[in-house]
Amino acid sequence: MYCIAILTDQKQEGQNCAEYIRNYCTEKKIFPLIEIYQDQEQFFEWTRKTVPAVVLLALPGVSGLNAAEHLRSLYPKCGIIWCSDLDFSLHAFRMRIEYFFMKPMEEQKIKEGLSIWFERSKVI
Predict the structure, then answer these.
(1) Distance between CA atoms of residues 113 and 124, nearest Å
(2) 81: how many CB neighbours lie within 10 A of its CB?
(3) DSSP string, the chain
(4) CA 7 to chain centre
(5) What is the pTM of this model?
(6) In whole angstroms, what is the distance from residue 19 CA to residue 84 CA?
(7) Cis peptide before 52 (omega within 30 of 0)
(8) Per-residue confidence (pLDDT) for residue 123, from 0 to 100
(9) For residues 108 and 100, what is the distance between their CA atoms, to the nearest angstrom?
(10) Mean pLDDT over residues 83-97, rounded?
């Protein structure tokens, strides 16, 4: 079973993302465990026990950059889909982020990110 984690600072945004992910995965007949976190400390503590297959990272500004760098350094093989309010595309490229996009958070962008990650990881 795949575990997909969502790390965001907004509760409603996390719930919306989970729904988008659930819809996409249901279409592909994949049923992952989806975890939502709003606290980076809790998230990274959880990753010590369960390393997610892919993380949807949606934190503002430098918080998102720091979380992406930390996540990549701890788990180089973990997939990262990163949404930011600032253009960190060069950083995302440098860190080999699977998919980077800027807000607004849209279902289509999340689906594109998941498609790229699933294709690279040969899940589907």
Answers:
(1) 14
(2) 26
(3) --EEEEEES-HHHHHHHHHHHHHHHHHTT---EEEEES-HHHHHHHHTT---SEEEEE--HHHHHHHHHHHHHH-TTSEEEEEESS--HHHHHHTT-SEEEESSP-HHHHHHHHHHHHHHHT--
(4) 7
(5) 0.94
(6) 19
(7) no
(8) 57
(9) 13
(10) 97
Task: Name, in order, each residue with C-beta under 8 angstroms of 91's C-beta and a sequence gap of 6 or more.
Answer: 65, 68, 69
Tell me if 56 sits within 8 A of 21, measured CB to CB. Answer: yes
Q: What is the pLDDT of residues 1-58, one digit of tens each?
A: 789 999 999 999 999 999 999 999 999 999 999 999 999 999 999 999 999 999 999 9
